[in-house]
Amino acid sequence: MPSSEPSARQQMLAALLSRVALGDRVAFDTLYRETSAHLLGAILRIQQDRAQAEDVLQEVYVNVWRAAQSFNASLSQPSTWLGSIARNRAIDSLRRRQTEPQTVSRYQAAQGPDEDDVDMLNHLPSDEPGPLDLLEQASEARALKDCLQTLSGDQQHALALAYYEGLTHAEVAQQMAQPLGTVKSWVRRGLQGLKNCLERASLALS
Questions:
Q1: Do residues 84 and 12 both lie within one domain?
Q2: pTM for the model
Q3: In the chain, how many domains are there?
Q4: Which residue, 108, 139, 173, 186, has fewest beta-carbon neighbours within 10 Å?
Q5: At a CB cut-off of 8 Å and minimum separation 6, what does 53 contact?
Q6: Where residue 192 sits, what CATH number does that domain have?
Q7: Is residue 16 domain-shared with residue 64, that is, in the same domain?
Q8: Rounded distance, CA 171 to CA 178, Å?
Q9: What average pLDDT does range 125-143 have in this prediction?
Q10: Cα 203–chain centre separation
């Protein structure tokens, strides 16, 4: 008789994806630990550069977090759905590499002329953020965007000029044709509003 273990595993992965779709970070971490080794292997069959493959794996899980709600267990198994995302990302990575300038980081192994080239960069530790780090960054960026929308248009404009374009308060006042005191008030109240909103968002995510 066929083993029921694969079916049980697919049910477990489907349950994890359902929880991820609801924003469950613990489920996301569990899903990563359960599937990352298999997906990395699938990626390496297409993108054979180890460092690039690990970057692709991170992209895959950020994509999974964002698209988990679109998974439909009646249409495909979780492993098939995850594998499709991994393959598509790996193929995209190859296409990107074709448009990038090539650098030399290879040397001939000392054992003899028949040895394979060794890519020295593959032996260096990666400083790239992991999937959970990328997820945290994406969540923070989304929270900041949502919090900015709670400010008035004048506050948003003043903050954008002061912090994104690097203008002084006096320059912002001149740009907006408003009194300096008014601009300072918009900036101060806008920053306080952002601080309060981001604190609430942080508590909601913890």
A1: yes
A2: 0.49
A3: 2
A4: 108
A5: 40, 43, 44, 47, 90, 93
A6: 1.10.10.10
A7: yes
A8: 10
A9: 59
A10: 21
